[in-house]
Amino acid sequence: MFLPVCVLLAQTTATRPELTTDALVVFGVVALAVVLFLTERLPIDVTAILLIVVLVVLEPWTGIDPVTGISGFANEATITVLAMLILSGGISRTGLVQEVGRRMATFAGDSLRKQLFATVAASSPVSGFLNNTPVVALMVPVVTDVANRGGTSPSKLLIPLSYASQMGGMLTLIGTSTNILASDVSARLGTQYPELHRFSMFEFTRLGLLVVVVGSLYLIFAGHYLLPERVPPRADYLEAYDLGDYIADVAVVPGSPLVGGTVRDATAALGSEVDVVQVIHDGTRSIAPRQATALGEGDVLVVRTNRDAIATLEGATGLELVGSPKPTATLSTDDEMGILTELVVSLDSRLVGERLDPEQFREEFNAAVLGLRSHGELVAERIVGKRLDVGDTLLVQAPPDTLDRLARRDDVIVAREPPRPDYRADKAPAAVAIMIAVVAVAALELYPILISALAGVVAMVVTGVLEPNELYDAVEWDIIFLLAGVIPLGIALEETGGAAYLAWMVVQSAGFLPTIVVLWLFYILTGLLTEVISNNASVVLLIPVAAAAAAGIGSNPFAFVLAVTFAASTAFLGPIGYQTNLFVYGPGGYRFGDYFRIGAPLQLLLSIVTVLGIVFFWGV
After folding, report:
1. How many domains does one find in the chain?
2. What are the tens digits of pLDDT across the range 317-335?
3. What is the pTM of this model?
């Protein structure tokens, strides 16, 4: 178990792999991938496509021909992940996850520890059978409401929600796309290492349970002390976003050229920096007014702009600044008239990379943009034209009947629950039965998980849980393209001998360390790499290296594969390592360091627990 690596150094030195030109070229492609993932100069799916192109163009060195280059799209792992995302979408349409969260919230009350227990208990087990990305998306408004009703800062609960879902994803094979991909890579390497094979449904559930229990105890009893209250309980959105400095009321004066005109005319007269977010006509407020909304004498326009533009409102033709020249506003926050909420830009949103145009946003979403947090920081001045990214949070106001429609869109995650949610609750029993059947068929090995999951997709449509046109909306296509791009990269790394050479370097640098420490170092290396590139990319790149290193020191390759797999799904050090961390970034008001403050001790704790668990259950 604790066999020193030095005992085997003589053997590994004699079998040093040759560093070929082919391997060097593949290393260059890997370096390109890491840089692109790290800098995010291109969207993740575009980067994946670029990798395919580069690998095929460099075929004389990479060995990746066009057929192999696109093989990731037909790979069993890719299709299985696609099917599981659709099944998760079916469950979400029934409102089942939200109902579980609400029942736990009733139990929690105003006790922080009970709230944390409810958050962990509602998200971890569910994430073992549904993709944890949509689970967190669905639970963000539920957990936020739990915090507000209990007088707790949402900042205390939202990072634990993300971390608990990640840990829950390690309970079963289908808990996360990383597990499915790792299983596929392990099966492919089985021809070289007899110990490796495709994972069964509950292959590592006992280790996953250990991780969930230990991690949950940390989050409930210790972690919350390390999280500051970035967002006050029942936060006043107007105050949190400093809207008093950027909202003003202007009235249409008698004889104004805007009398008989429209909001479009007012926007043109005021300039592109000014956005009309409300119109008050005869005491009635119009929230997120359309451009064609007619204006009359005495109407009051509530506008959102920047400090410089507010100063120009006093001189606007046909308009008069209402009240004090100092920009303070009478923006209505009555939920009966217009609900204030935050919208988080989701992973596969069409808004990613687009510049914010409040006028276009209002027309498409029927919601007025009042504020913006980008990468956790408040954008106080100019928001018009700001390029949006995953995890950016928009403060919007929308009519009550619009919030449910927003909640059902894939572009955004609504940070509070709709007042009248439109779920297919009557389809919940059918959805649950389908998921149980999918898991049972795969667990009993009657058919592979790919076949049972695809059959489950068909069943979801036949039973009416999902409409046929909703199948495509349920898929996070950037994940599918990412898998398709990194799979041939992993093949190139193996076929050119690059993985074997990296493994040899690891063995040589390990020196006199015990095998268990080398196993722990692979866990740490994977966890750190996952913080800067995709968790799926980490698995594809490091599993072949880990397996080769294990074989080189006479250890159990399966133990090393499990260490990499678990570490790739525990990205706790920052908001960008895992998509669920981004989803809670804005609603929790977090800063980058908050993740490290609570995540670093958890990462270290779970690294020890996981490695010791692997040694105990499977040996090294």
Report:
1. 3
2. 777 777 654 444 456 555 5
3. 0.81
